[in-house]
Amino acid sequence: MGQRIIVDPITRLEGHLKVEVEVENGVVTNAWSTGTMARGVEVLLQDKDPRDAPYITSRICGVCEGVHAIASAYCLDHAFDVEVPEAGRIMRNLYMSAQFMSDHYIHFYVLSALDYLDIMAVADYAGNDAGLLAIRDKIRYLASKNDLSPFTPRYDPDEYCVNDPEIVTTLVSHYIKAVEMKAKSSKMRSIITGVQPHPNSVMVGGCTATPTVDQLRQFKDLWLEQIDFVNNIYIKDVEYVGTGPLLELATMGLGGGTQNYLCYPMFPQDDPASSADRPFGGRNHIYKGGAVIGGASNAVEKVDYSKITESVEYSWCDYPDGVDSLHPSEGITELNARKENAYSFCKAPRYKGQPMEVGPLARGVVNKYPGLMTLMEAGVKPGAVARHYCRAVESKTVGEAGLPWIDRLTELALAGTVVGMKDKAVPKSAEGFGVWDAPRGALGHWIKIKDQRTKNYQFIVPTTWNASPRDEKGVMGPYESSLIGCPVPDANNPINIVRIIRSFDPCLACAVHVIDPESNNIKVHKVV
Amino acid sequence: MDKLFLRPKPTRREFLQIATASLALLGLSQALTPKVVKALEASSGKPSVIWLHGSECTGCSESLINSLEPTAVSLLLDTISLRYHETLMAASGHKAEEALEKAIAEGGYLLVIEGAIPLAEDGLYCTIGGKTFKDIVRGCAKNAAAIIPVGSCATYGGFPAAGPTDSVGYLYRNTKKHHEFDDVTGDKPVINLPCCPMHPERLVAVIVHYLTFGTIPPLDNFERPISMYGELLHDNCERRGQFEAGRFVTDWGDPSQNGYCLYLKGCKGPWSRHDCWKRLWNGRTNYCIAANVPCIGCSEPEFYERFSPLYDRQFDITLPGIGKVDIDKVMATVAAIAAAGIGIDTIITKLKGEES
Question: Which one of B228, B258, B274 terminates a domain?
Fold first, then answer.
């Protein structure tokens, strides 16, 4: 057996994640992904008023915030069979496209970039740009005070880290700009949602906000500023870094993984024609749903939502005897923190029995993003760098898609009060589901209502797909399989492991259902 | 580009802006400004902050970096020395653990806690680096100068308190103190900053107060700063007049009801103490009521379970000079009197008569 390495906590992600790998001859040969927190959200929703669900599920995660409120609202729209007004659909779309843009650039600059930059190179900047010189002086000042938190400590930079002082300093200036742009994006979104993060106005039947013409004018100005940052700074940085310094990592397909891809439709451009469209929020989506199994160039199939299951063989959860896997509409969340041989609070979701990668790369493969196809023809393999690239591409698309929606909402506001809600009483008993493709990937909510109370509530979130532990057949989840073959030349500096994991943009608060494996009987070598 | 980056150290003018804003948020006299500026200038030995994440969603950290004035970057690099923060720090794994151990050993830091603390199964429902969150909190509280639980979860348990993991706030299990950390708390100040998420300005104001006076602002019975959580939303709501007049939103789809009181849609304003109504959110842009959605009471220890259903009328309400009134009776009275074209005084007189 090779050497065991545990990275816990993996930081700069949402929630609590631990990864454990086995390394032989400098290469990862085995991997275990563990979500280490569980709040039992599905359990606490039981027997509550179903209308509470979008509010509470939104609080599953404050980073990819809002996506649960949308999926939950679609799910309840379906169960209540309520016709959401056009303004409700548009406000939900606008909210989500704003969230998509900022979520993606914050992931690149704040959560990922420190893995690819030698930030200390800033101190050697020798150019004349006043802004960059100011950053250099700031970093020098903080270094002189020995106060560089949170930039240090860190893993040591390796040969793939960008260390040109001019490039690094420019990227750091964009990091700072990205944080400011994110605050402005939140300001913009709060016009629709009341408070950010966490939308309070999105609920079953639509969205309660009644934005006025002048609020929408402010909204549009802030929107144009977001598009400008995405199109002129973020995309260019991703292209530069991905095809320049990181080209070698891109062509070796670092962090490739399962080669199975799943995504759900998102951004409906038309209202539902019938109840059957409600789980998707409408029709004619900008991004189509689909599944690709066994390789990125294989055929795209239509998603069959009845073929989604979860198993708990290695999860700290129990199913009744003789049950291997369950469809989420029949799902059970019974936490058992002391289950033998289990190693994660995440369940193991499968589509037609297969582990599936979800997220930007899956959307890129299914929707055949032109840029991604060009890169793949040029030798870039699906993996960590391609994931960053797909994020940048879709930020541009959703940003530009928003402009006609803002104009339409302004037209409605000019005609009178914007009405985005349709009230409907809680049905006595009903079932429903709702799906959305969040920045991190395929997200589904399922509800059963009985006697006007929530009888059962289940969700399968992107990070549960990606961070999934092994299933009952012993098949690894996407994080685990993406780590196989990862180069780890120095066990004390496992930087490629965190590069791969962060390229998925993990969001563990969402994923878990997970705990610490005291029952793990394999002797481990912890890096200290 | 963040303006503070144009110079290696913030200028006196910039300190003045932060100080003036913070004093206003705390309801303190502007005459104190010079003192605050002095404290901020002297703090380039900035206060160390350890920020812990428990059973949480990172929404409070998100809220922190949504801060526009001061910006998040100036907050993180010029106001505090952020020694441990899982979402923002460069380090992972053992490097992250080392940073935490070092900061704890040095002591004297502000301990910010985000997320609830699960106590069931001896804390196994949240572990980091192989330790339970409960034990991590215990280890960090010991050497802290002051403890600031932020957001509904870390203060009173929030929505996780309604789940199966016995999740609690640092001092409270909803409205009751649980005494789990009394031994490590000792007489250290604990300042609760509830709401879902936490409001970044409230945290900045507490830190500035601490830097200036070396003390904490006056607190209420639930350890909330009185200057921020002293007043009921209901007494200050811009829709209060609609309430008095008996005009309630019953159907969000009816544009003629736009701007009416949200009480029948479950508003917890009559029981919720906070200053969202004047502070607003996201750079003074909006807040729940202004987005036409009821206050769900996230500033209160009772949130969430006691306040569910969130979007339905739940409690009887007290009207000024009348006492407890059944709202159905109010509605019937209001309808009858409105039909007769009589004003609010008459309504109250009539209700008083019915109560007695």
Answer: B228
Cα–Cα distance measured from residue A381 to residue A26, given in angstroms and rounded to the nearest whole number: 22
**Number of domains into which chain B is organized:** 2
Over residues B73-82, the pLDDT tens digits come to: 888 777 788 8
Best of B73, B106, B262, B282 to disrupt the A interface by mutation (most A CBs within 10 Å)?
A: B282
Give tens-digit pLDDT for A190-227: 999 999 999 999 999 999 999 999 999 999 999 999 99
**Is the Cα dihedral A508, A511, A517, A520 positive or negative?**
negative
A3-511 — its CATH code?
1.10.645.10
* Contacts by B202-205, CB closer than 8 A, 24 or more apart: B202/B25, B202/B228, B202/B279, B203/B64, B203/B112, B203/B148, B203/B150, B204/B18, B204/B22, B204/B25, B204/B67, B204/B70, B204/B75, B204/B79, B205/B22, B205/B25, B205/B26
Residue given tokens 């009644």 in the structure block? A210
Question: What is each CA distance from B46 to A142, A168, B39, in whole angstroms?
Answer: 11, 26, 10
pTM of structure: 0.90
- B195 an active-site residue? no
> Average pLDDT, stretch A461-483?
92
- Write out pLDDT tens, residues B4-54: 333 344 555 555 566 666 556 555 555 656 665 665 555 555 788 999 999
Domain range enclosing B326: 231-355
Q: Which of A119, A138, A527 sits opposite B94 (nearest CB)?
A: A527
| Nearest residue in B to A49, CA atom | B309
Point out the residue among B121, B160, B281 whose CB comes nearest to the CB of A190. B281
Integer Cα distance of A30 and A470 in angstroms = 12
Nearest residue of B to residue A37 by CA position? B126
